[in-house]
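Morning F.,

Quick status update on the modeling queue. The single chain you submitted on Monday has been processed. Sequence for confirmation:
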Amino acid sequence: MLRAALAKARNVRIPPAVWFLLLFLCAGGFGFAVGAWRNLCADCPSIAQIYTYEPQQTSKVYARDSTLVQEIGLERRTPVALASLPSHIPRAFIAIEDRRFYSHGGLDWKGIARAALGVLRTRSLSGAGGSTITQQLARNMFTDRIGFEKRVLRKLKEWQVALALEEAYSKDQIIEAYMNQIGYAHGWYGLQTASRNYFGKNAIDMNPAEGALLAAIANRPERYSPLNDPAAALSRRNLVLDLMAREGFLTGDELERWKAEPVPLERARNIIVQAPYFVEWVRSILDDRFGGKLYTDGLRIYTTLDLKMQAAAQAAMEAGWQRIEERPGFRHPTYREIADQTDAPDLPEIPYVQGMFVAADPATGHVRAMIGGRDHVQSKFNRATQARRQAGSSFKPFVYAAALESGIPASAIFVDSPVVEEQVDGTIWKPSNYEEEFLGPITLRRALRKSINMVAIKLGREVGLESVAQMARRLGIRTEVEPYPSSAIGAAEVIPLEMLEAYSAFASLGMRVRPFPILRVESADGEVLWEPGPERTRVLDPLVARLTVSLLEDVVAQGTGYTGIRVVAGLPREVPAAGKTGTTNEGRNVWFIGFTPNLAAAVWFGMDLPDPIVPRATGGGLAAPVWGGFMKEVYHADAPLLPIPDPWPVPEGLIIRRVDTSTGLLASRWCPANESYDELYLPGTEPTVRCDRQGPRRDPR
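Structure tokens below.
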């Protein structure tokens, strides 16, 4: 029956019109399919976009010697050239992801067929696989999220983009782009960033085990990160190594050797940012100026940071913290006790002693080093740029500068005696000196050298407390300074970076320069986008500034800063230095702010919740040795970071007179010769009366 039916069918003649209709329908269907295929990717990246496509790149922060310090971005990615990588790294990706990479045209039909069978078997698109490296690169170019019902359509679009990529790029360019764009967990994108964070080394230095681990992580980053699941990472890494051996990329001995390598269990320690508070300060400045481009456009940020000075500052501060915690009577938790108990970031309260350090070039304002706190992980608060703390005696140079400017000479005699004032609320204000004794008549030079509070209060009254406040503002203090007697001895709260700015105006003989961390900002292509210059303002007559420097040199040479700087720290005497100690009530804040002719630096120690640091805490005992230790390293004889500068010259216009230390009058044969010294004066302020301790004396103030 069947044979008869077939024979009969062979004899049936199909009219030509029917053949024509069938051909028309086939052609129409083919044309429709071609048109649909072409229109499918109307919203895909075009060929031109593919040529110019660049992933989001982190902005790079460089030190002044162009060393990379940190990356800033939403996706931390630093591209690395394929040609610079050892061959085992791309081979690891090819072995696990796409072993026919160099032979297919963008789509691996064998892999697609195998994936299709998997879909039919499981009735799920999840884990279907079959994607080539080119397809995965294409997938990265689509940033919008899609639902389940659109996955098939998206897959077809990815095919089109993959084919376009194969036409536009070579195979080496495709795999290079792929390795540099994909994520490796923890917000780390690209080989270089992943290698630095997992292994603490550059991508070009990775061995086969490390390259295989990154290839393993690429499949499911959060699942196979060894920081999340070491066992899963190790198993997947070894699978990659096995596949590399199967493809002939590794010998049997090499396979066993690299399988024996452990996987990292924590982030590489040497990737820790050397100056996190400095970098965050830079980021906040540039965020205001460049907005989102800072995080996506791969800007190159060249800063003023000196990594060797930063290291010297860190070492000096660590020694300072240790010195404080080992002092008798220290009753706060130590940093190590808290660090051993918790690794939580951003602790709400810091119970251990904190500190701050910042150094800058007084001529340019370029910040060379910055430490905003003891542990950036536990506290992001930058005590150098954000904290407001009482200045204590470190405020006194502003009082003395105002007095010198008004014509009161450094040899003027004031009486160190009690000050008692009734306050508006009826209470009695009765300040004291650190050493609770009074020295009687004393020159201003000696009073600042010994940091006598009573003299500073009386001097502030004489020159005018509003004049003192104005002097502080002129020099760079932008926090409020009330015209109260207590302000003369540092009751006002100040920001450390502003204190450094003010002292730098003394160092540069009257030229105030705003401290700043950025030299220039370039685009990813090298175009200079911003090159801020120093903000200089003449705020003090050079003669007045040089007189103030002379007083502050005395503090280091024989005053409250001498022991800590010249003896404990051992800063050589040939390094010219000036500065002032600062201590607030009950030792809640201790300071030393000082400078040489070519470098200024500020040190502060205290508790975040103002409490006494340790009994008998002083700026001279705790902060000055840190300052001196840092400067000793900067001017180290064997490998100096800066040349030792010449001392400040005495400018023409200042007058030098030899005067008696007790009376401030001109030295004479009627007063002991060994109790006289050379003093500097503004013209017209020098003494004209000779010393005669047996005769009448000028009324002390």
